[in-house]
Amino acid sequence: MKYKDYYKILGVERNASEEDIKKAYRKLARKYHPDVSKEKDAEERFKEVGEAYEVLKDSEKRAAYDQMGYYQPGQDFRPPPDWSERFGGGARGGFSGFEDLGDLDLFDLLAGLGARGGFARRAGGRDLQIPGQDVEVTLNAGIDDLLRGTEVEIPLSFTEISVEGRPRRVTRTTKVRIPKGATDGQRLRVPGKGGPGIGRGPPGDLYINISLRPHELFRVSGHDVYLEVPVTPWEAALGASVEVPTPEGKVSLKVPPGSRAGQKLRVRGKGLPRPKSDEHGDFYAVLQIVTPSVLSEREKALYRELAQASTFDPRAHFE
Amino acid sequence: MAMGGPLIPALLGEQLEVALDELARTTGLTVEEVVELVEYGVFEPVGGTRLQWRFSARCIALGRRAARLRSDFELDLSGLALVAALLERMDDLEAEMARLRAQLLAER
After folding, report:
1. Are residues A208 and A287 in the same domain?
2. Cα–Cα distance, B105 to A263 (Å, whole number)
3. How do residues A258-267 score in pLDDT, each as one tens digit?
4. Structure pTM?
5. Do B26 and A205 make contact, defined as CB atoms within 8 angstroms?
6. At A242, which CATH number?
7. Which of A192, A289, A310, B1 is buried most deeply by CB count within 10 Å?
8. Domain of A264?
């Protein structure tokens, strides 16, 4: 089992008062809570902070944690021999010996303690019904995945409590089909595939948050796809037919004469599929007018000729 | 170990609706808390009486976030309602920003 230094995580001394612990937690929660924080790694940091607080705010769990001894964070350790007798349910038939708890998470072990008196009592109570934890995961998907739907395997680790009251870490892989129509920021729910319930409690649900990987060319908003299309000044002025990529292959795009920079040309139904229908979002080409940075003598001469011939004044409205 | 074919999850969008008890169950809020949050305008169900209330599935994500904030920050319900309203407004603004950003020309 790997040691975690809960005091260090909260930034408090080992003899900190309950009030100090609460204050430290609140400050860090404000900073890292994933629902309000924009910090990098907010989710991971908040999980650590939440775990630390969960253990240290509860006097029984804190005492059990303190009795484990002090190690370096991340160091492999085993609680002292009498620890499980004292905190694991001991004489009441709790678990003993940590040989097979090697990959158990420290927090899972401590979370099982508390008011109910060890894992054994929790698992053994006939009428005990504690629903399993809901689990939320973020899935990074590419545009292709959203276009065709995709199948993913999501490995999740849980602490299960056997009938003897012995906690053990299990990893379960859930195969999920991300249906066509999901898009960036979409949430999906898989009932009953979260953490296992305790006693006769039902399992929790699995929630999947879809996060779209940025694409080199395409930008996605809802089910619409945007692509910046560079055109020459003469293509914009005279109109042109240009070939552009869409997520589903190339299309020929008609740039109308007299096009402006930033103008959006819509290609209906070439965006991402919408849920539960045959409809798609739209594809937008956003025109960008690009001037060559190096001109040949001939090009320069033609531009000069154009400048002299043209009466166009784009700044007329400044007068 | 994966068993059987892939599961097909429900997309939580506007097209799916849930009743009061299901919203409470899936969010971890109590029925009373959901009712109070309706009074504060955080959730806007359609239907006349509580038994007829239907909530858009967006409320599930909203409610789960509210439940997390309530327990992680030890908020009371009126504070929670305020936070939820502000976060929702932030979501809308971020979505609008993302939409505008998708249409912006990149600097070259």
Report:
1. no
2. 10
3. 999 999 999 9
4. 0.72
5. yes
6. 2.60.260.20
7. A289
8. 218-291
